[in-house]
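Quick one, tokens below. Sequence please?
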């Protein structure tokens, strides 16, 4: 692909049940029909600026839709599109060039990809709202601090693993990973490093090596320390070091804050509330809390803007956030949480319902930010 590395793209998304309208070709939504085997994008060329996609999942599996830039850099994504559901979102691309779109039926693999061309001159940044500018600055500062802590705690974790301190490494594992989970929308945008650091064992089926935190999780909880465990630990630290450098150099915009807040809640819905993420340690509620905190951090930076534009939405977000936070706290045990395997189906349903209520309100934020 040929696209300027510094290209900026932002994504907003909202739920919906109706089929997307066909593309009008003049500012209308570009229809994307996703099935279990196809990804039909109605229009594959659009002028630089804000581009709207409307995705309908006509398959039987959960699906995702991505926009990639050069080097598989994830510039925008919509996750957790259930069968029969639709999502509409706006993508702001300021650099003309060749990108790729991709649907991921079952949310696995490289996706069903196609080229997408952005033409014309790069427009100016979409908003000069001072409150949004302050939100971006504040959030970038917060993300950078979290990234530094992620590197520090990963270093401690690697030291414990290499010293054979299994129980101490187990105790630190969910805490160290929490920094990744808080900034996941930014961290996972580097598609070359994301599966190396956070890939689950499923990546083997996709032709990749099983490395990173989850490989060491399996060694600590299931297989015991292996002959290559120390090498895997060193590799994790090297990958995290590289990631942190990239994260701190990343340019962000207000739409990415809004979309990232919702994306973190999708992460909980598709990986944490199911027990799939931490399948060996069962420390999923630590991840749940970290994703929740990351979502709230983005909203907190956008709060002055939202209070100006829609104070009723801010009140609704606050109420649903408080309810979810209090429910999550009820599962706290000591400095951590109950293991996922200790939860009952009734517990999982209560958490899911509270998460859905919060996510419903947060999903409205991106549209408000997009309107400026």
């Amino acid at each position: 692909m040929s696209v300027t590395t510094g290209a900026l793209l932002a994504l907003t998304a909202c739920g919906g049940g109706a089929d997307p309208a066909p593309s009008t070709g003049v500012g209308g939504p570009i229809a994307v029909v996703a099935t279990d085997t196809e990804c039909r994008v109605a229009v594959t060329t659009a002028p630089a600026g804000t581009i709207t996609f409307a995705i309908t999942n006509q398959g039987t599996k959960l699906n995702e839709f991505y926009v990639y830039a050069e080097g598989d850099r994830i510039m925008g994504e919509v996750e957790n599109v259930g069968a029969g559901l639709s999502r509409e979102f706006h993508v702001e691309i300021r650099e003309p060039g060749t990108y790729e779109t991709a649907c991921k039926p079952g949310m696995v693999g490289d996706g069903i990809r196609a080229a997408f061309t952005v033409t014309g001159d790069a427009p100016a940044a979409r908003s000069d709202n001072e409150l949004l500018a302050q939100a971006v600055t504040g959030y970038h500062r917060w993300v950078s601090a979290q990234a530094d802590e992620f590197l520090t705690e990963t270093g401690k974790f690697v030291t414990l693993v290499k010293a054979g301190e299994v129980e101490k490494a187990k105790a630190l594992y969910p805490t160290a990973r929490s920094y990744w989970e808080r900034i996941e929308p930014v961290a996972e945008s580097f598609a070359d490093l994301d599966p190396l650091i956070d890939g689950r064992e499923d990546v083997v089926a996709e032709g990749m090596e099983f490395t990173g935190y989850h490989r060491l999780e399996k060694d600590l909880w299931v297989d015991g320390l292996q002959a290559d465990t120390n090498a895997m630990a060193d590799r994790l630290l090297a990958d995290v070091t590289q990631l942190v450098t990239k994260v701190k150099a990343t340019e962000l915009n207000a739409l990415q804050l809004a979309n990232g807040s919702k994306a973190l809640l999708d992460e909980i819905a598709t990986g944490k509330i199911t027990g799939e993420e931490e399948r060996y340690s069962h420390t999923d509620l630590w991840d749940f809390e970290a994703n929740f905190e990351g979502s709230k951090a983005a909203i907190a930076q956008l709060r002055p803007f939202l209070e100006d534009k829609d104070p009723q939405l801010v009140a609704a977000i606050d109420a649903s956030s408080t309810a979810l936070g209090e429910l999550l706290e009820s599962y706290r045990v000591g400095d951590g949480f109950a293991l996922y395997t200790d939860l009952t189906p009734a517990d999982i349903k209560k958490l899911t319902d509270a998460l859905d209520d919060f996510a419903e309100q947060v999903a409205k934020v991106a549209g408000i930010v997009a309107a400026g």
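The first helix runs from residue 130 to 162. The longest strand covers residues 49-57.
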